Amino acid sequence: MNHLILVPILLPFLTALLIMLPPIHYSPQRRRWLSMIATALLLVVSVVLLLTIQQQGLTFYALGNWQPPFGIIMVADLVSCIMLCLTAFLALGAISYGSAGEDEKGSFFHPLFQFQLMGINGAFLTGDLFNLFVFFEVLLIASYALLIHAGGKNKTRATVHYVILNLTGSAVFLLALAILYGTLGTLNIADMALKVTQLPDDNLMLVKAGALMLLIVFALKAAILPLQFWLPATYASASAPVAALFAVMTKIGVYALLRVFTTIFGEQAGPLQGLANSWLWPFGLATMLLGAIGVLASQDFRKLVANLVLVSVGSLVVLVAVQNTAAHAAVLYYTVHSTLICGALFLLADLIATQRGKAQDRLVAARRVNQPVLLGTLFVLCAISVAGLPPLSGFIGKVMLLQAAFGANGQYWLWAILLLSSLLVLIGLSRAGSTLFWRVSGMQKAEERVQPLQLFAVLWLLSASLLLMVFAGPLTELSFAAARQLADVLGTIQSILPGSGVLP
Amino acid sequence: MLAQVIFLVFGMISLALLLNLWRLMRGPSLPDRILALDTMYINSIALIILYGLLMGSPLYFEAALLIAMIGFVSTVAVCKFLLRGDIIE
Amino acid sequence: MRMTPRFSWLPTPYRSLLLFVIWLLLNQSLALLHLFFATVLAIGIPWICYRFRDPQPLIERPGLALRYILRVFADIITANAQVAVLILGPVKKLRPAFVRIPLDLQHNLPLTILAASVSMTPGTVSADIYPSIEHLAPDEPLPQRWLLIHVLDMDNEAELIATIKSRYEAPLKEIFQC
Amino acid sequence: METLFALCIGFLTACGVFLMLRGRTFPVVVGLTMLSYAVNLFIFASGRLNLKGAVVLGTSDNYADPLPQALVLTAIVIGFAMTAFLVILAIRARADLGNDHVDGSMPAPRHAKRERTK
Amino acid sequence: MNHWLEWAVAFFLLLGGSFVLIGSIGLVRMPDFFTRLHGPTKATTLGMGGILLGSIFYFSMSPETLSVHEMLITIFLLITAPVSAHMLIKTALHHRLKAVEHTQGEQELKRGQAFASKEGNRSETPDD
Amino acid sequence: MNVLWILLLPMLGTLVPLLLAKQSRSRNAWGTAAAPALALAILLSTTQSVFSGEVLLQQWQWIPLLGLDLTIRLDGLAYLFSLLILAIGLLIILYARYYLSEQDSMPRFYSFLMLFMTAMLGIVLSGNILQIWLFWELTSISSFLLISFWWHKSEARRGARMALTITGGGGLCLLAAFLLLGNIAGSYQLADILEQGALIQQHSLYPLLLVLFLLGCFTKSAQFPFHFWLPNAMAAPTPVSAYLHSATMVKAGIFLLARFYPALSGTELWFLLVSLTGLTTLLVGAYLALFKHDLKGLLAYSTISHLGLITLLFGLNAPLAAVAGVFHIINHATFKASLFMAAGIIDHESGSRDMRRLNGLWQFMPITATLMMVAAAAMAGVPLLNGFLSKEMFFAETLQQHLLGALSWIIPLLATVAAVFSVAYSLRLIHDVFFNGQPKGLTKTPHEPPRYMRLPVEVLVVLCILVGIAPAMLVGGLLNSAASAVLAGNLPEYSLAIWHGFNLPLLMSAIALAGGVLMYVKRKQLFDFQSALPGVDTLNIFEQLMKQLTRSAEKLYNWIDNGSLQRYMALLLTAFVILAGLPLIQMDALGGGRAEIPIDAVNATGAAMLLISAFATVVWHRKRVVALLMISVVGLMVSIAFTRFSAPDLALTQLSVEVVTIILLMLALFFLPHKTPKQSEPSKVVRDLGLASLVGIIVGSLSYAIMTRPFTTISDFFIANAKTGGGGTNVVNVILVDFRGFDTLGEIAVLGIAALGIFKLLTRIPVFKPSSDGEGRPWARERHPLLLATVAQSILPLALMVSIYIFFRGHNLPGGGFIAGLITAVAIILLYISQGVDWVKARMNIEYQRVVAVGLLIAFMTGLASWLFGRPYLTSWFDYFQLPLFGEIELASAIAFDLGVYVTVVGATLLILASLGKMTTSYRPTHKEQL
Ligand code: NA
Ligand code: NA
After folding, report:
1. Alpha-carbon distance A355 to A364, whole Å?
2. Right CATH for C93-176 from 1.10.45, 3.40.1580, 3.30.450, 3.30.70
3. For the whole model, what pTM was predicted?
């Protein structure tokens, strides 16, 4: 029983509560520092957990000491640990940025942020489908609240859409859960994977319906066409640190797709194996393309970045549908890369917007930014990375994606659309960059300067791109190992339900 | 005998509930509808108690108590709303 | 008329008694454990709730209060029989009416009990007590207040008013000594 | 009974969905509430119907499935939290945007739209 | 003993059921809001009392248990029913609902309506 | 010496100018030059071994799983290009020191230039094709930065974007080609690939691969039809043009042709694609160059033309042609770089590049004029200069090929035509600038440039002459080793002599010279003809195209995403209908054969009421209060259904939530319109009805299918273990607080967070208080009816008592912390309703957010306590104690957990409702965090 597995959930929870209570709540400084320190600690814990799991293999934690499939379990495998590290890394950047002043523009920034982390980490760790629903709701409600942080009409408008769509999604999630429970008689993911193998023919289609409903839910979270509509406005209007954290939100959908459709409906599932692929493939491609079109179409920079998120989601989803080790490894690596870099871009967009006066981040001629060299350099680095150009991590991700598609049906569709959208992204980014920094009207300059914490935040996230490139060797190996572990459904069942008699 | 009585009373309560629903739909005024709803709440307490008798189980009591409470509170809240708009002031 | 409680630890003794009984009712048990809890709660809850209570006149004549309650119960049953007949009888023959009754009572608790009693008994429903005193300045003298009631089938207005005043209002004045 | 139960679930769902497709926040809230009822009944039904078997030990010898009940409880609470948030959000939207349309602005009337496309 | 109780249960249930039904019939039959109010407020409350008494007796039939907690519901209804009625009638006054034509004391109704709304200024003496 | 340093030094050199930013301009230049100079020295030190045919190879593991290892591979071809890049680069650094003005940021310029140099060296020195691509893209980026160096000029920005778009697109094609190549060859190592030419060319993907590969090469090397970006890139400072757009970057594409020559060439497809593209480019470039008035424009088009020439050579599939190609690479680099630099001098010293204004500069800058004349002559292919030699070889090779069969003569013919143009534009360059009368309207008086600015030109021009005179001696070794690298060792016999006797190529040269002179003399007619043709402003066209692209993207995007939630919802539900409906259609039978429970009249009545009220809610949804009343009936009926079907806990929870929801909605309705206007079009209503019905039918069918199927579940475990393992007899509650306590923890967290979020939503909200209801009725006067106030006060203790009762019995009987919490909260809310905020606040001044936090903390800590006993989180504990007098009592950790639930629920509910209620009072939620 390794208590460390639970710490990524409990630590943010406790932090949130402590921030709301005396003596922490008295001063903004205390709230900030506790929040940042706790998040740094979270990162350390996540990394330690990852290293432990790398040594020990898949480990689970039975809450309340109720063994699976009866109790709720948290499962730490390489995939979930990678996602934990990613979240903590991203969060530290976002919180640092927020602590430069954005946090005081509304109430409960830090507690909500920590709650959101709790929800996200819970969703990554849980090995129980209903518990996944609960953590989804935790992270969603926290995200609703964070979304309106600092107020404003756009935020309100976007939040209304976001909330209503997600509430509908939650209803569908519950229906799907009920169907799966009503046919499989269990909620534990590994147990479900096991039960699927013994499914009577009469229940086959019911389970399929449940599974496809889950697909809708996760597709909505992941923002796959035609369920992506909430994303651009939401991400574009959110407060910078929130938008940065949101960069991981769509990836939770992707993660859930990966979990459910490779474990429950993995190779052991017989006729239900890979039942989502034929849907994920075309819609993933369409999402990618739409995102790229959106990058071109965007009138402001934040919306552009939001569309970049769509592009990355599209690529990931297509690769989820490819269902081989290389593809899943690519998904993992690219997830980490795209999340962090999009997070950095959201922060950067805010820095640029602040220095451009009234024009904000709109792509029109405006007054010159106050620190063109600093912001320009950051912009170029981010743009290079996100567009998948060398030498930053983006190109490795892109190469992994392309390589993973080898041999897949419709490989050339993927290639063509991936490369085309890369080109569109490149065009869009070069247009955005040259407008933001070079189309200057008037000689006036803003007074605003980047604050140290803000700069730290952007550099922190950007440094990930560099690290992902420098240590690409071991990191891709890690991704492959994680993908192999993910694909080993029988092994997973065996370690979680040793009494089931399944041999890997 | 008791069983028949219980079913007879079930019938009465059901009829009462349908009458309440009729008034609720019919209106014509809002107070009429609220009154009908309030009555419906109270009548469903009777229904629940009867279920308890039918099942011979005391587990239904709390539900009845809660219905009494929500009947009251929601009637008050709706009336206050119609009177003042602002129900907490 | 007393407004302040006799014991600060037991500000509302009758309420405590009621709660004590209710706890035992709820648990349907006379076990020592429940008696203990009933006592604790019967003292604890009123103590907590006392601050959420406007000062009210205290019951000075408990015996009379008991009699009043029994009378109201009896009235409820007879009144209901009458109302049932009226409801099932010919609707056209009803003689509904609005009547206002001048009030001698001044405090909220007795007034509430009066209004509730009127509502539960012979074909009458309390509609309003006016004018309301919430807009009065603290030092303003209390105006004459009225209880507006609706009567389902009124025979004689004066008789009705007299009955209500004597049957319900007078005993209440007595009970609360106000 | 199962048929009737399923009919109720389906009908509630349809009503809820129809309301959620309306253009104002309030009907959406009402629709969501209705949909939640349907969903809760659905989850409940996934444990199959049982007339005499409240899941309190010692009261019966044929218990209903307790797990869906626990799940519905969780769903009710979460649904309540979400509905509450949405309601307040609707107020906020009305205050910020001046109308209660879900898009934050009134859609242009049809003939105006046609003119614009011309 | 049990036989008696059974009769008592049956009696109270039937009594209660009848009053509940009568209350609801009143709700449907009566000509205006004010008259409709009487049925539910009184008959239904009494009917509930009957049913609850029936329940008390029913559960007390088995030896060694005495089920009296239904009393609590009765108490609660007795406390709240007049208040609900009061709030409803106040609302009706505020909404200026029409009383059936031959209602006596129309003046009182008007005065009540005036007091319910803002026009009923308190400087205006209520007794003409 | 480690060859890695050849790459590494310029890479580090990128930082040098930035570090020297505060130093003087000359120091900056010298400092910058140090790294490439050193690298050049290292390169030269390898001359011996490279010329002897050795391939210097170094390899480091980087990303083995992707086949991407860092490999430095220095062979003859790499040596040649490295030499060009470093040597010309050094000259450019020197030149730029004088070219850049005081306003230009020199550190930035040098830094970008070094970055570019690194990228170029990376391409040529890579031994791994993915690594080649890495540096390939880096050249695109750095050239973007260099072209847009003068970002305030719109044509610089546009030119840079155009270059990036074209070369970036090509880069993506190249990546695809490389991945295919690697996949076919089974390795991404260059050495492995070059050995597998046969395998690659026989592979079915070869045509696709080749096309993608050539797209990459041709875009970068400005081959027709991608040539147009190059002239527009001339918005860059001239040193950049000289370096990137003549000597290096545009040669990257050519380099790849040469690099992959052994693996990809030799097929018909190769010939057709490469040589014909080259030929077209050669002609188009030469023709267009003649008509450019801009000095740099002319040079740019001539570059295009020469690049076409080299491409054509590589496309001929003949070893000698490849040798000629390599040779022309060297020659072109020298004369074109010097020409650009000379043009830059003219621009710099006279303030104009327009040949219609620049006339007679001979008198002002004779030395520069001489240098430029020599270089131009080399470009025109005048004997005794290097250009002549490679052009001769070119002519010879065009004559040798027979690839077009009977039409093979076309190639030499067209080559001669191109050469004619080439001579003509060279002549024009010289004559128009240095002679042809007096300058017109120059802003400055031209003069010779500073000494060292001219030095690079001089060096290169001297090289042109020397190579022209003694080719074998000077570049023989270089050419030999480079060409043998291109040809994978199968170097043919060739001679670098100046004189090959009278032969056909010489005749072609003569015709070209004569024809060129003639054409220049008769240029008037030609110019008239050209000016009669519609002018093509590629930059504008491209810009318009991009705008069009953006606009159509915008249109398409907005067409898909019109911002209407109703559409989003409809799509979501359509997805639901399709995905959940398809399996239903595929099902054999909906029913599963499980026996149904018979329907009785009471249940039928209940169901009817449920259906009617639900329907009524929909029908009257526009009258909001009525809709609320109707949906209350639905809620009531659902609760009764729960009661009926053995779920008392559910009924209790549903009911208590129901109250709070109704209060909440009433509170909310005050701030919302009381009526919904009719707005939906009938067609939309019909659509929505259809969609809603479908969803309803599907959900109903699914539930029916589930309910009628037999099933086994894990629940038996819970029933069996609730008492023994969880210490409670209410199995549902034991599941909630024990078996699945973690769900409950999450659930109360959701409630708490929702409350915080609501508080957040309500802060700083613009307050608006309607003065009348929906019908325009002013509000009633009395705020707190007397009866209600008094009764609410009496209900509070009762409600508290009941909630305590419900709380404690929850573990064993229906009830629990959640319901108890709601009852308490409702009792308090009733006080708010009946007495107002002031009254309550005076008696209880608690900040509810803190109550929420405390409640969550209690639940959290209860779970954590099990760690003290070495048990997993939330492990429950219970025991029975015998107390004197009291008898047996049970203590359970579940009670503490439930207490947390209770406190959270009270806090959250009050926070939600009271905050909303306070909106109209002076205590409304304030912006400042009030923790
Ligand atoms: Na000229
Ligand atoms: Na209020």
Report:
1. 14
2. 3.30.70
3. 0.94
